[in-house]
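Sequence in, structure out.
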Amino acid sequence: MAAELDGPRLEPRSGPARRLVVLLHGYGADGNDLIDLGAAWQPLLPDAAFVAPHAPEPCAQAPLGRQWFPLTLRSPQERWAGVNAAAPVLERFLARELERRKLPPSALALVGFSQGTMLALHVGLRRPTAPAAIVGYSGLLATPDGAAADAMAAEIRSRPPVLLVHGDRDDLIPAQALFHAAHGLSALGLPVEWHLSIGIGHGIDAEGLRHGGEFLARRFQDAAGPP
């Protein structure tokens, strides 16, 4: 069995946690790379706890970093095999964190960057209870051997609202991946919003950060229902 995940955490600004935001880092980074997103979003989400687990494997191409799965070939087949292999360890972590916080599955949001976006989308769409939201930065939607998204329609168990954010000058995962993912998710019946950050490469700018935080705040409020 793979080692259990752990990583940096941020407690809510006030009182016990009523929401849980899990931040999934990119290839070759670790949880410390994304936990500052939580600090930036705390004013919008004062009752949320944030956790950014380190991926389970050391990264072959970045000895100090981690990977959710290998990216040696960077092919659709490798990505599809990778998200399927990494999903169980992340699912165990999510179950443990929600139980530790005494929160229902609907109080969860997933935020990913790059490889973390691939995993957030894969896991989030297959949970029995839909997360309140998924935010994916600079990533893509992994599908079976690169087929159209409807090839995995039978596997989809939930349809959470999704926000995709991408830089128009991303030379690692081209911005076309945003439109491909948005189209595929829409075809699967998910409500999708997107934002293209102008002049930005493989990263998150202030505007993308703002969109992500505001999206989470809205979707958590929608999930909670009227007061």
